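User: quick one - fold this with T5A bound?
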Amino acid sequence: MLLTQTGRVMSRKNSLFITLEGGEGAGKTTLLEKLQQALSEKGYEVVATREPGGTKLGNMIRKILLNRDIDCSIGNYTELMLFLAARTQHIEELIEPALEAGKIVICDRFNDSTIAYQGAARDLGVDKVEQQCFLACHGVLPELTFFLDLNPEIGLERTKKINKDSAPQGTVDRIEAEKMQFHQKVRSAIQQIAVKEHERILTIDAERPAEEVFTVALKKITETLLNKGITANV
Ligand code: T5A
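Assistant: Sure. Structure tokens for the protein plus T5A:
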């Protein structure tokens, strides 16, 4: 979506901005890959990206934030600013140009993650962080969000079985290493956002098999594309 100068949020006609949200190991990357493949096969131009990341600067910030091999202290507010700096660059360099070009952009994590992790779990304040997110992304907001809802105990177990960012299996990054209570706060915060913003966010039970999660998400995207009159270039 796009924020006008009068503060009105309006959707872009020929493009669709989708975000995937959820806790650690909820299946966002898995869903992202499946959606990209299915939509591309239907003839849509799809940009699949993630946060923090998506640009050269974003990936550099990602390394600092996840702190796998960089050992420095990061204050909570600094952490917020780093996530937002990566987001602003991501929007300017990748997301907005892709939307302008009429593409479907699917982003693994976006503002809801910041509100949940930094606003709620780090206790910086949900409303305050929401406002900061709004400023950082110049009103470029997703029209559709899938919240993959999962008990963090299951999600963290899942992440131990993958080689994330080429790190050895079983190792955790700086944020995954937080206490279970932190991850429960994240889940509860996104659940609350999903209730408040039920028109944008579709909650999917992420304990369901990956193929079922994908089917639900693809159906919703297909409906949204149809409602917007967006057809594939085939
Ligand atoms: N963060 C991020 C903030 O604090 N603030 C912010 O503003 C932003 C943007 C990012 C970290 O930064 C934090 C949140 C994170 O801690 P990341 O590496 O991008 O770090 O973390 P995740 O997005 O959580 O990535 P993960 O890879 O851990 O989780 P995914 O992508 O949700 O899960 P996925 O798809 O990799 O799946 C994990 C495993 O589960 C299996 C997969 O095959 C894989 O083995 N799986 C399933 N198994 C059973 N049933 C299903 N339905 C399954 N779906 C996938």
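One thing worth noting: The chain has one domain: 2-228.
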